[in-house]
Amino acid sequence: MKDYYAILGIRATAHAAEIKRVYRRLVVQYHPDKNPDPQAHAYMAEINEAYDVLGDPDARAAYDLRRTQGWTDLVATTTAAGQTPPPPRHRDPKYRPRPAPTMSARRQREALMNKCVPYIKWFNYVGLLVTVLFALDYVLPYSVVESEVENYYFQRPGGRGRNLSAVLHLSLTNGDHLKVYDYDGPRPVQARVQYRRTLVYHTAMSLYYQATDFKMGYNYRALALFPIVLLGTSLAAVLRRKNIEFFFNASFVNGLLLVITLWLIL
Q1: Is 215 left (phi over 0), alpha (psi -120 to 50) or beta?
Q2: Whether this model's pTM surpasses 0.85
Q3: Ranges for the J domain (predicted)?
Q4: Whether the predicted pLDDT of 43 surpasses 70
C-alpha cells in the first residue's frame, strides 16, 4: 500500500489546511508545464492520487485504518464483482477537470435554422422573381384586346348610409373577366369592349366601354404596397443570405407576402 503521507511529505497528523497548502505547492512544482523532467508527470499522478484520498475526510479515515491494521484495499470487492470504480475527483475545485463544453442555446437555434433554410429559401427567390416581373409588366408596352361582353352584373357594397358606387363585373367572350370599381358610366349592355392589359400577368390597365374610358390597373395603386415590400425584403434576404438568422426570418415573412401578392396579381 502506498504511503500517501510520504508522497506529499507531511505528517500523519497534518490537518486539512496543511494538506491543501502542500498539495498546491507540489502541483506548481511538478506540473508538466512548469517542470520539464520526464519523471515529473508520473510523480504528479501520485500526488493527485494521494490528495484525492487525504483531502477527503472519509477516505482519509478509511486509509488510516487500513494503514494501521494492514487491511487490503476496500475497493477489491467492487473490482472482483466486475465493476469499475469511478475515477477519483479532486477535492480542490481549482484542480478538478472542467466539464465538456455544451452547445449554447444560440448555436442550437442556428443549427435548427440551417436545417429549415433549404426548404424555405425559395420564398425569397420566387418573391424576387415575381416582383421584378410585376415591375417590368408596368413599364413594358401594353397589348390591346377587343372582345364582346357576354354577361355582366353589379356588385354593390354594403353599409347603410353610404353612397358608394357599384363594382361592374364584365364576363367577355374570350374568357377574360373584368372588374370596374366605382363604375359611374351608362347602363351596361352586351356591347363590344376594348381594353389594354399587361404582357406578363395580363392585368387590365384601362377599358374603353360605351364611348367611355375607365382607368383600371388597381394592383399598381394602393395595393402595390405588398409587391413593393416583398421586393425589398426578398432583395435584402438574398444579399444577406450569409446571415442565417436574418435569412431565416425574412423567408417566413416573404412566404406570407408572396401568397398575398400572387392573390392580388393572378
Answers
A1: beta
A2: no
A3: 3-67
A4: yes
